[in-house]
Design goal:
The chain has helices spanning about 5-25, 215-225, 240-250, 470, and strands at about 30, 40-45, 60, 75, 85-90, 90-95, 100-110, 120-130, 140-145, 155-165, 170-180, 185-195, 235-240, 260-265, 280, 285, 290-295, 300-305, 305-315, 320-325, 325, 335, 335-345, 350-360, 370-375, 385-390, 400-405, 415-425, 425-430, 435-440, 460-465, 480-495. It is mainly beta. The chain has three domains: about 5-30 and about 205-255, no CATH class; about 40-195, Galactose-binding domain-like (Jelly Rolls), CATH 2.60.120.260; about 280-495, Jelly Rolls (Sandwich). A hairpin with a 6-residue loop joins strand 25 (about 370-375) and strand 26 (about 385-390).
Length: about 500
């Protein structure tokens, strides 16, 4: 996309007027984060949970007993009809077209055993209403999250994101406990919060994947109506910084690509990870790796225009290393196109960074039947990068096809490089800095017809692993912390 001088001039005039108004009024204040303790709750909410699918998957924090207040909590026992529900006695005023985070610390009150709880699950629900006096039957919409709580008796932190898409003016948070036949689980809820989620890092307000004059018109309208979604920098008010961020995004140039149209990117230009694009994976690593993946800023942060994933040597539970893994599942999923990222890699014995893709819905079965596309992997000295695809053969056995790129001893950790695939219905090609080094046209997925499994949507994953079956463990030469810098991730799709 090329800069448009006329667009910039028009925007400058409009922005000047809006900025003058903003400065004269001292900045328009939007809805502030609304958090509440579990203190005033009532029972008797209808039990209609089973009619609704679960929302976006929540995560649990592996650091139990942190931050919750301890003695003040709500205890719930699942009733004989399956669900026991309670909710706060007052509704929460919400802004329209706005993302919110719902979160709570939850413990299994029958704790003391290891493993997951087979007796049922806890749940968080958000009901949306137009007016504070509307009955439950008149609610506009609802979202809920089912929480699988470990049985060790510790509190675990659960969080999910919801969006007010139904022009609701009020929301109500409901807590619930579910059971299976013959069991009566008891769950304790503490420090329940409902708050504004991180604002959009890119102000594409109308969802057309571009930032243009229509978005500016919505920005101006949002200012007048006090809509929280237009507080771009998340400081709770509309100020010059919001306008500056919008200006940067509107006038920023993403290069054209012959035969393709730009459809999505994360440029990591903000100050926080954009959780409308990414979700943290919080758990142990795969493949005999040594790290634990966390969602802490200590392991992943946006700074200086890059996503930075930081692998550290530290004691963390039973693990000696920590790192981060982020995925875009259900938030940025694509079928075919050019997928690319500009990355500066870490380097050292036992270090295993990756930029890869997995199926969003594994319609052909578990791994590797539904496929895997490794856009970039490297290990240890980082002088060779690898591109690979995984699938199953006609007999259902794991099969891998790929190659590597070596540039006369170049260390790919010394600078940024662009790693990409071009994915067509019958061919996938791998590139480093626009040099194609591998292509594949033959693959399979058991008895499913070609081009399965690579005919379904996939999502992105970015991570830095430590150790594992391929890289081997770190040694005395390995320096920590290790940092992978991601300048941007972009997707283009072929022009119709």
């Amino acid at each position: 996309m090329k800069p448009n001088k006329c667009r910039c001039v028009i925007f400058g005039c409009l922005m000047a007027g809006l900025m003058a108004t903003s400065l004269a009024e001292g900045g328009q204040t939007f809805i502030s984060n609304a958090g509440f303790e579990v203190n005033t709750w009532s029972t008797g909410f209808p039990n209609e949970w089973w009619f609704y699918p679960a929302g976006t998957a929540v995560y649990h924090n592996p650091e139990p007993n942190k931050a919750h207040s301890g003695n003040a909590f709500v205890s719930m026992t699942a009733g004989p009809d399956g669900w026991a529900n309670i909710g706060p006695t007052s509704l929460i005023h919400v802004a329209r077209d706005t993302n919110y985070t719902i979160a709570a610390f939850v413990a299994d009150a029958n704790g003391g055993q290891s493993g997951q709880n087979p007796a049922g699950a806890a749940a968080l629900r958000v009901d949306w209403y137009a007016n504070p006096g509307d009955p439950y039957s008149s609610r506009l919409d609802q979202d809920y999250f089912s929480l699988t709580v470990p049985k060790d008796g510790n509190y675990y932190y659960f969080s999910g994101q919801v969006r007010n898409n139904s022009d609701a003016n009020y929301a109500q948070v409901i807590l619930a406990a579910n059971r299976v036949a013959g069991q009566s689980p008891v769950f304790n809820f503490d420090d329940v919060t409902f708050a504004l989620a991180n604002p959009l890092a890119k102000p594409d307000f109308n969802g057309d994947r571009t930032v243009n004059f229509i978005d500016f018109a919505q920005l101006a309208q949002g200012y007048g109506q006090g809509i929280a979604a237009y507080d771009i920098d998340g400081d709770g008010s509309f100020t010059i910084s919001d306008l500056a961020l919008f200006t940067h995004e509107w006038t920023r140039t993403i290069p054209d690509l012959s035969g393709y149209q730009f459809v999505w990117s994360d440029e990591f230009d903000g100050t926080e990870i954009d959780y409308t694009n990414w979700t943290h994976y919080v758990a142990e690593g795969y493949n005999d790796e040594l790290e634990f993946y966390t969602d802490r800023p200590y392991n992943s942060v946006v700074e200086d225009g890059c996503l930075v994933i930081i692998a550290r040597e530290e004691q963390y539970g039973s693990h000696n290393y920590t790192s981060a893994m982020l995925n875009s599942q259900t938030k940025a999923d694509f079928l075919y196109g050019r997928m690319a990222a500009r990355i500066k890699l870490p380097v050292g014995q036992g270090i295993w960074p990756a930029f890869w893709m997995m199926p969003t819905c594994s319609v052909y079965g578990g791994w590797p039947s539904s496929g895997e596309i490794d856009i970039l992997e490297t290990i240890n000295q980082t002088d060779r990068v690898y591109g690979t695809m995984h699938f199953t053969n006609a007999q259902g056995q794991h099969t891998a096809s790929g190659s590597s790129y070596y540039a006369n001893g170049l260390c790919f950790a010394d600078d940024f490089h662009v790693y990409a695939v071009e994915w067509d219905p019958g061919e996938i090609r791998w590139f480093v800095d626009d040099v194609m080094y591998f292509s594949e046209t033959e693959w399979s997925s058991g008895s499913f017809p070609y081009p399965a499994p690579f005919d379904e949507q996939f999502h992105f994953i970015l991570n830095v692993a430590i150790g594992g079956s391929w890289a081997g463990p770190p040694d005395e030469t390995t320096v920590f912390p290790q940092r992978m810098l991601v300048d941007w991730v972009r997707v283009y799709q072929k022009t119709p």
